[in-house]
Amino acid sequence: MKPSIVLAGVFLAAASILAACEDDLVLVQAQTRQVEIEKQKPEEAVPDKVEPEVQEPTDRADFFRQRAAKVDILWVIDSSPTMKDEQEKLAANFKSFISFMESSGVDYQLGVTDMDLQTPGRQGALQGSTKIITSSMQNREALFAANVKLPSTGNADEQGFTAAVRALTPPLITGVNKGFLRPEAALFIIFVSDEDDKSPGPIEHYYRFFEQLKGPGNENIISISGIVIPFGGCPQGTQVGARFSDLAKRTGGLQGNLCASDFSKDLESLGFSAAGLKERFPLSDAPEPDTLRVEVDGKQVDPPAWSYQADKNVVVFARNSIPKSNATVKISYTLLGKKPT
Question: Rounded to whole angstroms, how far apart are CA atoms 223 and 252?
Fold first, then answer.
């Protein structure tokens, strides 16, 4: 074979290989570009999801449950000889004291003790043949009248605070006074005297005792009031009840006037306070006042049974219309500024 022919064959073979390789390179690059193009191809357009338009609520309904009222009421009465007439007034006006509680379904019980710490059988012990008078007793008025008319031979050293402490602590509360202090009930103490308290020690000591009597966090279910000689005095009074009034003020209680010829109004106020029912209902938002609708146990109640106080955003019930114990209260309204025009 001639060398030129062999060389030509080699060149032809090399050219074929190169051509083949170039073809392969072109194909690979084309495939690569094809892939890249496919990757960059935009996705098909998807219609935007249409969200339903959310309407801001314009109406509101607030629901409340009236507290289940249960209260233990301790009367601590001065039994010195000068208090006979006042005891008669208490007995005569007892109906004024319990009328609101009874019409409102309050579960109450009453006990009477006196301020005599010297005479055996007293000294903080509950008095009367029926020592604990309950709201379910048929003859409760007669029983209270009998218990409140204490023998007017009591010691003139009126230690009302000490008598109350003894009545509510062992050994009396676990002995002769057992059953009076219910763990789940509020406590309402009423002092009645024509003298000031003469218990030893500062008022702060007694305030702390009564405040802690129901345990931590329950200070608001204890209240102390008094029917005593007011500042300024009165003809039949001998001494202003300054300590009694001070303790009442500290616990959010009331002060009745022992000088009054008729105790009915003071006893009515004390009974209302003792019941502990809620009369003010705060709203969760500001209403259009003329859209307010109030229902108690499913029945609509209209003004003047209640009124709206815009500055405090509360609905306030009149005293004779306060929802009873355990009642359901619904207050519905249109939000302020959302009333249709």
Answer: 6
